[in-house]
Specification:
The complex is a heterodimer. By secondary structure, chain A is mainly alpha-helical. Chain A is about 70% helix and about 0% strand. Chain A starts with a helix and ends in a 9-residue tail after the last helix. Classes of the chains: A mainly alpha, B alpha/beta.
Chain lengths: ~350, ~325
Amino acid sequence: MESHVLSNIVVASLLAGGVLALLAARRSDLWRAAGGELLRRRPIALAVIAAFVLIALLDSVSWIGGGDPSAEGSVLALHQPRTVIDRLFPADFKERSYSAPLADFEFYDGAPLANPGAHLLGTDILGRDVLYLALKGARVALLIGGLTSLIVIPLALLMGVTAGYFGGRVDDVVFFVMSTLASIPTLLLLIALIMALGRGPVQVCVAMGVTGWVGFCRIVRGETFKLRELDYVQAARALGVSEARIIFRHILPNLMHLVVITFVLLFSGLVLSEAILSYLGIGIDGSWGQMIDQARDELARDPIIWWNLCAASAALFCLILAVNFVGDAVRDILDPRTLREKQ
Amino acid sequence: MSGAVLRMGDVVTSFPGPEGRIPVVDGVSLAVEAGEVLALVGESGCGKSMTALSAMRLVPKPGRVDTGTIELAGRDVLGLSVSEMRRVRGGDAAMIFQEPMTSLNPVQMVGSQVVEAIRLHERISAAEARRRTIELFDRVRVPDPEERFETFPHQLSGGLKQRVMIAMAVAMRPRLLIADEPSTALDVTIQAQILELLRELQRELGTAILLITHDLGVVNELADRVAVMYAGRLVEEGERSQVLGSPRHPYTQGLLQSMPSRARHRERLHEIRGVVPRPHDWPEGCRFSTRCERVIERCRTQVPGITEVSPTQRVCCHVVADEVAR
């Protein structure tokens, strides 16, 4: 199957899943109340995240065809799938090299621009619109954070809960695996994995997932150790509840606040560490990290080229700050121990 | 058919130690008759809770019941499969714990926890289980049961939580309820209410109660019979009036004398010197010999046998045995 079709299917199923989850959440008073509370506490952060998600989704839906066939450079474009964002910035919305934000002339030789005053954030060394590149980065960032968390969290929960709950031999095995992974320098292992798996975005996410679950797994294992001995787990046993049910009803729900906190920290951490991978030249194409990496040289130029770095950093900063704010609020709201009494 | 709901014979429960397994329950035999309240008393660390956990086959790993027989509601507990044992727990026998603060899952509404307990043992609809839960809440005197159904444990007081725990335990009308220090963590006034509730349930549902406590006041309130435990063994057993009124074992006598209400005004309270020895340094012979005021030579070498001082009162003590023989 072609990759753009796959991407469209993923977007469709994500949307469907989101709608279903929302409908399910609406039926439960608890979740509806939590949602309302979150909206009340962190409206701006939620809006920022929603905007990033929207951009990422718009950048994930693509199809072939459409557009103006007479435009320059569009022959190639006609046969390539292009996303909604791509279509917002036509193929001829380009310059030959650097231009400052909203400038009418090129930055170095002063030649008139093809689109004077139209590049809100200027253009990069190849003349590409920086706003366009920054918007494209949102999809990559969400992919890195989302997909990797999707690998890390279930893996860590599975390993941590089984180790913590059953103890003994199982615990020994899990602990051995964790210690082994923890004793290899993460960055080297990451590079080795990416070399072995290849350099696609999914491969990078898998590599980061495999190297990133140990920390959370340790927390889960310790917490499960503690929960296992608590009276309500003992009480459940005394009432004849089976082990599997105890894990799903009593252990996992009591780990959820950890999952939320970890997801947030992990998400920001992963997006940031991708920037480091980009610096080493093995990041994902089109990420903010790559833009920042390219801007390294530009900072040394005279006069300085700042808009490239600023656009990527600001986008990164906004997303991570918003995610952190929301994560904090979600934890406060969902943890019933901090829940305020109903009036 | 014998009337005993729980019958334990020579049960030994042990934990691994540095030099082989160390028994924490050492040859305990007791029976709880249908509908009666048997109080198991003793100081902390003498194996009361482990005896109760053994009966439910809930001894935490790596401990285990080594030998002996345990019969619960006519079934051989030690021979049951894991899934059969699960049906017994919560069905024929249920348990409530000391600490109501931590006995309920903090992230689940209290009502749904009781619903879960009911639906584990009976195939009924969620709505039906909900109705039953509210009925149960009403029965254990939870005010506004409908509203309380949808609260989280942290919104309830300790006493209410303990009531919810009791509701959960008696949901299946068990024949035996094991109450491990049910009122210790509560305020005195709430304590009395909870004991009152337990007595009421015992009378109405005919549930036998194995009451584990170190509070002789509670024993006096609730118990029909009393078994006194010291260092993993039973030392005295009998009707409440016998054990509390005319105790024969020096340990029981010491316990009773150290109750504040029995001491005369301004008189120094009696104490049993020393503490319960840890299981790995339990002495030879009678285990109380290291703290006993009436110890004789034989106590340090020979394990005392059972002496029946009356048809219903039994004591394990050389001194008492000599007195009776005389």
